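Hi there,

I know you've been waiting on this one. I reran it after we fixed the sequence typo, so this is the corrected version. Both the input and the resulting structure follow.
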Amino acid sequence: MRGKLTFRQQMKLTALPGMLGVGFLYLLPGCALFYYAVINNVFQKQFVGPGNLLDILSNSYFLLALKNTAILLSAALAMVLLLAVLLVLPNAFFGWRMEGVAIVLLIPLFMPSVLSVELLQNVGGDLPSRLQLLLLFVWRNVGAILLLLSVGLARMEKDMLEAARLDGANRWQLFVYMQFPMLTLYIGVGAVFLVMQFFGIFREAYLLFETSFPPDEVYLLQHYMHNHFLRLNYPYLAAAAILFTAFLVVVIWVVRVLRNCSKITCEKCAG
């Protein structure tokens, strides 16, 4: 029938609102971000090229924030993932259901940040600043990772495990050579979730130390960008946002590489 749209045209019309949304919400702000990153200020608007990026990379506060972010992020991921794996062991070894424990541990994630910080200050206010921030992050996020790993164990083929058990495999061998390799996908997803959660920890850090200039050992990239925002230093803020995005991409890439390497290693051990 003349005038009737083809399936391909219908799909293009259906995708048009999404494409417009991506353009207005991501592409245009991204172009503006790169524009502000290569000018000296919002008034003179003189082109300085990569000058802002070079100034930031030579700034002692930015380097301190980058170092602290890398250290705390690595420690936070290691602590949460290790604790979640340890908590899921009773399920893997003895079949104990850990979903109830995971749901209880999920409560801190939904608690107001003010209440979480208040509880931490009452319990561990004398601890070093870096340890306080790590404990707060672990306490708020370990339940979500435990629930994710419990779901991963529940979705495994019971017939495979039973066949390996009949062939003489003990509980430790079942976990190391079968269950853990299958959990690497869930661990990778959990690691990406933790990275996203970590970059939102600025709220808790601000409440915990009551300033955007905390002790040097917990001065993060979020503090650096927040302080430039308060000074209306948009060119430096845009340049820092570009470097921050690059850092985030590298972190997620490293997480994926480590997950793939651990999976390959477990498969070789199983072979």
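Quick highlight: Residues 57-270 form a domain with the MetI-like fold fold (CATH 1.10.3720.10).

Best,
R. S.
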